[in-house]
């Protein structure tokens, strides 16, 4: 096994959840340290969510698909998010619900380009929905309903600890349930892959997320 980056309004909610997943709190910059599972799998998983935010800069790549009430599976495209800090990141979403989309956040400024169009700078109110990820961050720890340690796996000579988990999050007035599996590096205590499924009503999204750490990333204001 190798790690690989493997309805318009509706799909923005998973994006917010993913951003919340990867920017859980603001921490001082430092990198992961060696990780040994405890006898409390839920706490281990919660701490892993927080530990990502001591790992700037990093890049995550997500490949997703969704299934609606009609049972038809639709590709969610590929989303690449590069984080220099919790409030400085660049998201590129290829073949997503809005076509090829880019969003750049630098402090309290956000810029976006929809479906290969022109860059626009929005006032904070224009991006109120995206700013809700800050509220979601506060819910992530309590959203972990259960987690289970299921053993180790060595991939390309690197040892990983594997956990399964269930999370529940209230978003857009609905309850989203996420079940998944994560691979946590033994040497750094950081997540290196998530495979999970989000469900709400008749809607389902499957996602595969991989992480790259210690990467050379620059996030700058785009040329308007």
Low-confidence parts lasting 5 or more residues at pLDDT below 50? 4-13, 23-30, 124-134
The oligomerization state is single chain
Tell me, briefly, the overall form. Answer: globular
Integer average pLDDT? 81
Sheet with most strands:
11 strands, antiparallel
Name the strands of the widest sheet in spatial order.
6-5-4-3-2-1-11-10-9-8-7
Radius of gyration: 17 Å
**Which class of secondary structure composition applies to the elements?**
alpha+beta
| Strand coverage percent | over 45%
Order of helices and strands: HHEEEEEEHEEEEE
Integer count of domains: 1
CATH class: Mainly Beta
The name CATH uses for the topology is outer membrane lipoprotein receptor (LolB), chain A
| First-last Cα distance | 42 Å
Number of strand segments: 11
Second rung of CATH, namely the architecture: Clam
- In helices, the fraction of residues equals 10-25%
How many helices?
Answer: 3
């Amino acid at each position: 096994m190798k790690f690989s980056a493997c309805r318009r309004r509706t799909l923005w909610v998973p994006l917010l959840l993913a951003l919340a997943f990867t920017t859980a709190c603001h921490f001082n910059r430092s990198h992961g340290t060696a990780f040994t599972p405890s006898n409390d799998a839920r706490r281990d998983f919660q701490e892993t969510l927080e530990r990502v935010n001591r790992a700037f800069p990093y890049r995550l790549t997500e490949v997703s698909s969704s299934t609606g009430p009609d049972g038809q599976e639709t590709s969610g495209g590929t989303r690449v998010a590069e984080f220099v800090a919790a409030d400085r990141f660049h998201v590129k979403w290829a073949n997503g619900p809005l076509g090829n989309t880019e969003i750049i956040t630098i402090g309290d400024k956000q810029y976006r380009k929809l479906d290969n169009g022109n860059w626009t700078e929005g006032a904070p109110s224009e991006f109120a929905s995206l700013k809700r990820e800050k509220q979601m961050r506060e819910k992530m720890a309590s959203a972990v309903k259960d987690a289970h340690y299921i053993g180790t796996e060595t991939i390309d000579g690197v040892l990983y600890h594997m956990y399964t988990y269930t999370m529940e999050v209230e978003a857009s007035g609905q309850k989203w349930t996420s079940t998944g599996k994560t691979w946590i590096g033994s040497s750094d205590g950081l997540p290196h892959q998530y495979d999970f499924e989000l469900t709400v009503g008749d809607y389902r999204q499957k996602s595969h997320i991989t992480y790259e750490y210690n990467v050379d990333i620059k996030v700058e204001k785009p040329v308007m």
